[in-house]
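Annotated sample (chain length 779).
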Amino acid sequence: MQMNKLIGTCLLCAWVWGMQANAQESIKVGNTTRNMITYAPEGLPYNPPLVISLHGMNQDANYQKGQANWEAVADTAKFVVVYPNGINKAWDISGDTDIKFLETIIDTMYNRYHINRNRVYLSGFSMGGMMTYHAMARMSDKIAAFGPVSGIPVDYRNPSGRRAVPIIHTHGTADNVVYYNGDANHPAGGYGSIPEYVKKWAAFDGCDMNPEVIKPYPAGKPGSSATYTRYSGGKDGVEVVLISIEGKGHWHSNDPASVMTTEEIWNFCKRYSLGPEEPEPPALVSAEPENHSFDLPSQDLAFVYTFDEAVDGGEAKAILSGEGMEYPLVLSESGFSKRLTFRLPDGVQLPDGDYTLRVEHLENEAGGVLQSCVFTYTIGVVEVGDELAIETLLSPVWREEQAMVGEGIPTGWKRVNSRKDGTKDEKGSGAANTGGARLKYFPEGGDFDAGFYLSARDYDVCDFYFGSYDGYRLHLLPGQYVLSFNSVYWSAGSEEGKATFDVQVTDGTGKGVWSQVGLLSSGCMDEVSTEKVKGSKAHEYVFSITSEGNYELHFTMSQGWNSIILGGIRMTTQPSVADVYKGGFLRLMKEAARGYEATASDCYAASEDLRTALKIVLDQYEGFVSTAPSEYEEAMEAVEAVWLPLADRKESVDVYVNALETAQEALSGWEKDGFDLTAQAYLDLKEAVRDCAFGQVDMTDNLRMRDAAESLSGYVQKLREEALTVDGVTVSGRPVSVEHYDLSGRRIKPGCRGVTVVRELYRDGSVRVQKRLNVFSSL
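Output written by the structure step:
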């Protein structure tokens, strides 16, 4: 009953791509996959700042997150935070490897959150602080201000860069890793004191070399023992600050009684920007037809979009594309207007099908530009059926392969481990006990009970794919598809190293048509297959195919002995929006109408008020037609509001009535078979039937009816158990076999909840068929 609406909600989630507020993720930097933790608080404004926080040597992003705790500041100040992971827990503090990583992070966050490129700030601890100084020299045109903590370049390199840069450096005077007073014997050649190095940068920035000194700092705190040294008057208003914390060692200070380093860095950095603020673009208020509308006419169609402020119609453009054609739309308004109306050119009649409408360059009077809005529509009436149209194209049951291939390659799949020199370890469909990347089996009851161990091992790449064998092709038609699977780390090293893998769909020529790279997993099996798989990461992706043909699904990994287990792979068609909403509404109406008719008998007399309420709504929505998903959703909510209470009542009544009838039949059978009428089980059931008879149970109280049914079923079971033996001797009438069926005739396991048909075969060849009620499932 709730399934149609649930699936609709899931589909909307697939259309609206969103990032978790606090998520491990991977990105591609050139040909390398890098990973990081991204934090985006709720309620981000347009054009939010970005803070990148770098960990120290032999640390990682998660450790830095726990030490710096930028989230506490970001939740209030509303900016995005990224904690990157260095390669081998270190940073390239002399080359471009991590400079490119930082640049890619900035680009990624801009594309995702539209961060303010003029307000990107970089901070780092220890070696992360060294990397922060390296970035000052290499990318000061992309980062507005810098906040190194407990780290300087140990080669004491001279300041350099494209511009004067704002710096706030925090350091403990008792630091025993990067010494506050310098280390003349350091292997890099020795370095001077922290104050002198910061002073070098102040001079490079053109600051007044007579600093302001505040001590103790911060004033008024019980643990204040720091010294605040500020060089001001630099080029373009730049300042350089050193906070020296007396007695502090090599750690990030977030001490409420003394220096809160993270807050100090933010309060300093937020004052700086590389340029003026970008004007906020206009926002779309409404669309008519609304996004994802269907059953639209093929001609004389107008698209009306309303914004929160006037936009320049002279610059706006709209193009409708689909069915291999593009149609520039005609704008009715001119000049600035909050409402834009686009129409098809005269005489154009659209073929039925799916279309995308892109409205571009929507500029307000302040110069803010909304680059594009994209909408999807379906032209022509879409037929829907009695069931949601989802076709399963791939759903392997690898547990069934165990007897034939053991720990080998599943049927229809292929595994190729390869090296750059051309050597390969190739295993085909059905290869048994192959070793290397192969099937693994786990106890039932976990996230999955059979999965594929994906690892390149001694090779450069492991490619595990489906669709290359006759009889096991992946033939796809134009449309949208849903791919889902689970992944869990196999080894502790893979989990700690945040090992990643890729998934790709390729066409018949091997060309990629869709991919997801740098995928992370969760959970860890610790190389044990005797435990249930728990805590794996669920993946679900929607992709589109534009041409009919045979395709291949590839899972690849290229990180040596790092390994994951893949399981629960499933590919289905994506149902149309019309099927989800229009079809969901029509199916719900039919279900509710059947429920109304099924509750017309006397045993539902106490539910007449619920039936009347349902009838009113059924009549109200009889023949309801719309093109808007939201209107169908509202209609479904209205129908469910009156149908669900009646459905719950009907189920409660049915359970109670069936339990009472079963109990009465049990008593009659006991008496007819001549059993002891003084047996306690018989007397208990007889009393329960009397207490739970019609008229004794409130037929408007769902809980009371279910309790009565449960009580009656319990007493019936006790009577049946007693009927099996008389004076310790098995009754001759005991069946030799018992089979259970549902009301449609499908054989089921014993103990399924609800009414079941029980077929009993006796020694004399006779057969007894009866209905029984189980209130609670034993499964």
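Annotation: Residues 446 and 532 are 5 Å apart (CA to CA).
Annotation: The first strand starts at residue 22 and ends at 29.
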